[in-house]
Amino acid sequence: MAIAGFVKRIRDIMRLDAGINGDAQRIEQLVWILFLKVYDAKEGNWEFDDDSYQSIILEQFRWHNWANDKSLTGEKLLNFINNELFPALKNLNVSSDTEARKAIVQATFEDANNYMKDGVQLRQIIDVVNEIDFDDVTETHAFGDIYETILKELQSAGSSGEFYTPRAVTEFMAEMIEPKIGETMADFACGTGGFLTSWLKQLKAQEKNTEDNEKINNSIYAVEKKQFPYMLCITNMLLHDVENPNIVHDNSLAKNLLDYTDKDKFDKILMNPPYGGHENAAIKGYFPDDLASSETADLFMSVIMYRLKKNGRAAVILPDGFLFGNDNAKTSIKKKLLGEFNLHTIVRMPSSVFAPYTSITTNILFFDNTGSTKDVWFYRMDMPEGYKHFSKTKPMKLEHFEKVKEWWNNRQEITVEEWPKAKKFTAAEIADNDFNLDLCGFPHEEEEILPPDELIASYQAKRTSLNKKIDNILATIETMLEEKG
Predict the structure, then answer these.
(1) What is the gyration radius of the CA atoms in the chain, in angstroms?
(2) What is the mean predicted confidence (pLDDT) over 309-329?
(3) Of 186, 258, 171, 243, the residue nearest 213 (C-alpha)
(4) How far apart are alpha carbons 272 and 222 in whole angstroms?
(5) Reduced to 3 states, what is the DSSP secondary structure of residue 130?
(6) How do residues 242-281 score in pLDDT, each as one tens digit?
(7) Closest-CA residue to 329 (of 206, 435, 248, 421)
(8) Strand partners, 376
(9) Range list of H helices, 264-411
């Protein structure tokens, strides 16, 4: 198929359907269709490798049977999908003994929806998707790029943008955390799986044999609360050849922190926790009183600290509000972070990294579980030359982190036009400043505040100057009118 035009063709057809409202629903509609196509291709491989493999999906509901039936269209197709296929997939017989690669089907369709109301247009969508040939290795890799394009489009699809972290950011964080084969990695609010794919990419470069491959594919653990990104993430992992993705559809915050044991901990944690949101009051009951914040990002920070193995490493994206916030919970979390963990680096990112979803300025906190913090290095990432801000047409790229990487391995304090760009602060200095981590921030012009008498005099002077300009313009107009008269 012509991979390059795939997304446009799908979008053009879906725009004609009255049942779909906006890009978010359009993408959600496409994702469950893609999941079934991808899953069917994977099942074909599993059957080829294992004669005893039995699909959890009844034969009449497997993609290759119904999707290839061209006579199934219009109202007949809608009736089949809404009244037969969806109920069958939502009610699959799944238990704790069910293989992960089979259980994910029921979990994926648990809250999925068919929004399309025109069965003819839905048939057209299915036919376009059916053009993808997953037996063609080149086309499969190309489709991986198309799927990444779909995920990027979430950033401009209303609130769905919260599920996608720019790939340049996830790859930088995964590289800096130094993954090793045999280690485990977790993301407790995984969204579409960006950190998981960046982690896998780092490990795949180290792979030498089938034993390594098995360790890599079993190294990830992730949780996602919302159905839509969970579905995206499962499909993403299947496309990356993770056959039994250990991804749970659940709320990571709904468990008592004090119940975690060593078996619940991980070597590495990569996360961009949801921020700005609020959980219900019952969730706070799972946290010790001093850590029971109303802000989701704060709660996730506590989860991360409780679930990071001894000597483990974490890289976490947090908004500015966490750095300068001084309410009781935020201060307690930061005290715990510096007192029990080594917060060695904070990279301050430009405000438009997550545009257009949000303009909130974010930061990457790097810390490890090796003991208390002695010093914290801060590094401010300025906008690259030629950029006023990042956008859909000018996104952040991995190359924009090159200067950070150069500095990372040869740390020095840097000052630009009297503003610190990179600087080290001791834990004691930070504690003395009420645990305010809002350091090495972005330069801004200080507004000059004049005394009242000077302010009035300045206003009168400007007003006099403006009146003179108006008088001159009126005089010119009057002269022109007299000459014409």
Answers:
(1) 27
(2) 94
(3) 243
(4) 12
(5) helix
(6) 988 999 999 999 999 999 999 999 999 999 998 877 778 8
(7) 435
(8) 425
(9) 281-284, 296-306, 320-324, 328-340, 402-408
Q: Is 478 helix (H, G, I), strand (E, B) or coil?
A: helix
CA distance 281 to 411: 43
Closest CA to 67 of 41, 28, 106: 41
| DSSP secondary structure letters along 202-257 | HHHTT--SHHHHHHHHTSEEEEESSHHHHHHHHHHHHHTT-SS--EEES-TTSS-G
At 72, the pLDDT band (50, 70, 90 cuts) reads very high
Placement of tokens 């000018």 in the chain: 394
- What per-residue string of b and e applies to 439-455 under the rule 16 or more CB within 10 Å gives b? bbbeeeeeeeeeeeeee
3-state helix, strand, coil in the chain (%, to 5): 50, 10, 35
Find tokens 């313009």 and name the residue: 473
Q: How confident is the model at residue 22 (pLDDT cuts 50, 70, 90)?
A: confident
| Cβ atoms of residues 190 and 225 within 8 Å | no
The verdict on whether omega for the bond into residue 356 sits within 30 degrees of 0, i.e. cis, is yes
Task: Give the count of beta carbons closer than 10 Å to the beta carbon of residue 76.
Answer: 13
What angle in degrees, to the nearest 10, is found between the helix axes of 296-306 and 328-340? 30
Give the C-alpha separation, 58 to 56, whole Å. Answer: 7
Could you tell me what percent of the chain has a pLDDT over 90? 60
Interacting residues of 5 by C-beta distance below 8 A, sequence separation 6+: none
**Does the pLDDT of residue 407 top 70, yes or no?**
yes
Q: Sort strands 247-249 and 266-271 into parallel, antiparallel or unpaired.
A: unpaired
Half-sphere exposure of residue 8: CA atoms within 13 angstroms, side-chain side:
4
pLDDT-derived band at 4, boundaries 50, 70, 90: low
Neighbour tally for 351: CB within 10 Å: 16
**Between the CA of residue 358 and those of 133, 196, 350, 390, 398, what are the distances in Å?**
37, 23, 12, 12, 20
